[in-house]
Amino acid sequence: MLCEICTFSGHSAVGRDGKMVLTVPNPSLPIYLWKDENNETLKRTYLTKYPGFWCQHDTCYVNPVTNGILLRGRR
């Protein structure tokens, strides 16, 4: 699965709010940010909360019946 929803403590979240995490590489993800020397800001912002995974920092909800994902945005 490309996208997973994790609780704020890092466990899989179904039926409650969590953070959207990308678990496999995706060609649409940025490889650098403008004026970000050595990719420090990119790594600190998107790759440190859940090591090894891209954390978009968007809050989502997974419906336990349909498995549909509701993107709530950033809070």
Uncertain segments: none
In DSSP terms, counting alpha (H) and pi (I) runs of 4 or more, how many helices? 1
Mean pLDDT, rounded to whole units? 85
What Rg do the Cα atoms give? 13 Å
Sum up the overall morphology in one term.
elongated
Total strand count, please?
4
- What sequence of helices (H) and strands (E) makes up the elements? EEHEE
Strand proportion, as a percent range, falls in 25-35%
Q: Strand order of the main beta sheet, please?
A: 1-2-3-4
Main sheet record? 4 strands, antiparallel
- Going by helix content, strand content and strand pairing, the class is mainly beta
Distance N terminus to C terminus? 25 Å
Helix percent reads under 10%
Protein name: Acetoacetyl-CoA synthetase
Overall description:
There is one protein chain. The mean pLDDT is about 85. Strands 1-2-3-4 form a 4-stranded antiparallel sheet, with no helix packed on it. It is elongated and about 45 Å long. Helices cover about 10% and strands about 30% of the residues. By secondary structure, it is mostly beta strands. Strand 3 and strand 4 form a beta hairpin.
Give a short synopsis of this structure.
The chain is mainly beta and 75 residues long. It has one helix at 40-46, and strands at 3-6, 17-22, 54-62, 69-73. The chain contains one helix and four strands; from the N terminus they run ββαββ.
